[in-house]
Amino acid sequence: MKLRPGPTLAFAYVAYTTTSKLSPTIGSRGRKEDPLDCRARMAVKFDVKPGVADINDYEDAYVDCTVWLRRLVMSSSSSTSPPHINSTPSHETPRHPTLLLSQPHSLASQWSNLCPPAPVLTEKNLPDQSNKVFIVTGSSGGLGKELISILYERNAKVYVAARSETKAMAAIHEVERSLPGSTGQLLFLHLDLSDLSTIEKSAQTFLERESRLDVLWNNAGVMMPAQGSVTTQGYELQMGVNALGSFLFTKFLHPTLAATARTAPRNSVRVVWVSSSAAVMAPSPAIDFDNMDYKKDESALNKYMRSKAAVVVHSSEFARRTAGEGILSISLDPGSFMTDLQRTTPTAMKLLLRLISRPPKYGAYTQLFAGLSSEITEENNGGWVAPFGRLVEGRPDLQEESLGSKFWEWTEEQVRPFL
């Protein structure tokens, strides 16, 4: 497969390394541009029927772009033939296959997430966090480890919630050695989200030590494990950890969050639900209530996307159900990074991530914004944050009240035996 001259985009790179059935042509306004210069005007055109000249002709350009990316990435994660770009699932409006993508312009889209603007909240301008109490789940490595480092540097008390005490303590000691001037605290909290029967004990351990909780970052997650991987209770591992486990942990901590909000500064008490761009690319309907047990099997990538969509639904519904309590609920896409989370992903996807990824600290900046930025208020409660700290419109169907209510009740039913 031969690409015509022009910038080699991440999207084209996936196609080039995984399949010869897709034949994109890549062009730009001249050839002196940096191949990864996000300010360039770029076209992604397939050698099929002529299409629309500008992606901005579509009112839902965000969805158009991500639907195309989902099909392309799915082809890289499967040994089966890649999907035909012309084929249109029943839930999608037929599209022309030619998209002209402009950056920057009016696209608040997945495309812009490849090249986000600079973060607005970092360790350099974060105010002192003395007397604040935080929990960051899954913080023994990756984005979570970067986040606890920033919080500790600004003198916060941070609970490092993780399954492995060995890894968590190694992370704690590394951060403490690197920041000898901090007056904060890093404390290990055992948390295994893959076993619902253990989560109450983890929450109770925290509650025995603390009477307040300012921000809970639900950062822990699983991405594309071996097919057939399940939790202790038999749930598909990604849905079980990313959605059910985090939901139950949050439920146990909810009363303390509400109590903290009664005396804390307005808009400062929050639950941050770490989702992914995968939520936007999830099939529709994102929550398939007829196949929650996956008796009709799907790819690991599809399951991952559904689990991350579920995180967004939980965040939106939590915001509705806690309205008036002073707790803000925010979901986010941290960005693209290479961390231990991707250890089981296919090689082609790892190559893509290496091409577009940033240092993990940038993902921590997205989480920092969601958890501590003054830009987030009651007005955008239940909203969506994009890399590396931008309030943008999320995927509309994931924020629908009817879906949120139904999925919340389904989740409540699953966790009821462990309350």
Structure keywords:
three-stranded antiparallel beta sheet, single chain, alpha/beta, 419 residues, eight-stranded mixed beta sheet
Task: Please explain how this structure is put together.
There is one protein chain. The protein has an eight-stranded mixed β-sheet with strand order 6-5-4-7-8-9-10-11, sandwiched between helices. It has a three-stranded antiparallel β-sheet with strand order 1-2-3, with no helix packed on it. It has helices at 10-18, 61-76, 110-113, 142-153, 165-178, 199-209, 237-261, 278-281, 300-321, 347-356, 360-372, 401-415, and strands at 24-28, 42-46, 99-101, 133-137, 157-162, 185-190, 215-218, 269-274, 327-332, 384-386, 390-392. The chain has 419 residues and is of the alpha/beta class. It is built from twelve helices and eleven strands. 47% of the residues are buried. It has two domains: 10-113, no CATH class; 133-418, Rossmann fold, CATH 3.40.50.720.
Helix share, percent: 25-40%
Report the radius of gyration as a whole number of Å: 21 Å
What sort of overall outline do the alpha carbons produce when their principal axes are compared?
Answer: globular
In the CATH scheme, what's the topology name of the largest domain? Rossmann fold
Residue-averaged pLDDT: 78
Summarize the biggest pleated sheet.
8 strands, mixed
* Class from helix and strand fractions: alpha/beta
Quaternary structure annotation? single chain
The H/E string reads HEEHEHEHEHEHEHEHHEHHEEH
CATH architecture of the largest domain: 3-Layer(aba) Sandwich
Strand order of the largest sheet: 6-5-4-7-8-9-10-11
Beta-strand portion reads 5-15%
Instruction: Report how far the terminal alpha carbons are from each other.
Output: 56 Å
Can you identify the CATH class of the largest domain?
Answer: Alpha Beta
Total count of strands: 11
**Uncertain regions spanning at least 5 consecutive residues:** 1-109
Number of spatially distinct domains = 2
CATH level 4 superfamily of the largest domain: NAD(P)-binding Rossmann-like Domain
| Secondary structure tally, helices | 12
Biased composition (Low complexity): 76-91
Keywords: Oxidoreductase
Region (Disordered): 76-96
GO molecular function: oxidoreductase activity
